[in-house]
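As a warm-up, study this chain.
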Amino acid sequence: MVASKTKPKSAKSDAKKGSKGASDAKMPETAAKTAVKKPAKADATPASRDSGLGLPPAPTPEASLSRYLQEIRKYPMLPHEEEYMLAQAWREHDDREAAHKMVTSHLRLVAKIAMGYRGYGLPVAELIAEGNIGLMQAVKRFEPERGFRLATYAMWWIRANIQEYILRSWSLVKIGTTAAQKKLFFKLRKLKGQIQAIDEGDMRPDQVEKIATALNVPEKDVVSMNRRLAGPDNSLNAPLRAEGDGEWQDWLVDDSTDQETELAESEELGKRRALLMGAMENLNERERHIITERRLTDDPKTLEELSKDFNISRERVRQIEVRAFEKLQKNVRREAVEQRLA
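Now compare it with the structure written out below.
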């Protein structure tokens, strides 16, 4: 009976107004009468910036959350027939009063879904505000002729908006960039509880394998996400102690070589190479070749190979190598002393 009264009322209203512009002109007054009275600050919430369907402002301060939850209980749930007629009125006649009634009747659904995401450290009021935006988007796109209820359709929009808001706000570092990572982010805690992986720190390899198999993601992604969820982001500029002047970044260790050390090592290497090349000039050709092949290459030749090159015995090659190395050391030391004296 309620549904049959709703449609004629909308039709008469359209006839009296005569045009869509007149209907829009009366909308603010109607919305003001039906909306829940909230503080002025609530108008700055994301929900109030949406399409102007007349949704009561979502709570902004946490202090108003309990009041908001009490207010939305005043809106009754809609029977299937009435919901269908209201959806048709909105789609065919742009009846904003009908859209407003569909939105307000599902505010409790938004609050219930938002409560399920309280464990991510974000204000519940903000989660509800984002869920309300998803609800209004669902009302805009709802097609009642498909045969399912608005709550079934809106649930996906509400969850999607809340999850996107959590991913944007939970960390300064972007997280959950793929569908698999999003699934891992929102289901990891639940699965850890199921396998009783409640210990802090890294999970055991068998626990990681179970979760990776259940979510069809790589094991390294499970380990990485678990570590990110284990602790919040911290600023490197935060002080070590309340009374101290030091910051966390002062304790970061740079394993790479500093520029001064690299320059000093490069200059030292250049000097040693110059001394070696100068000392090599005092050797004869055979001695230079044997020293180079035995001491100055990554893949040194054997005594057997060098003995064949010069058609001498291996023992003779060894003797030449020892003598040439002694001469080389003597020349290098002499050049080093002369450069220091100079």
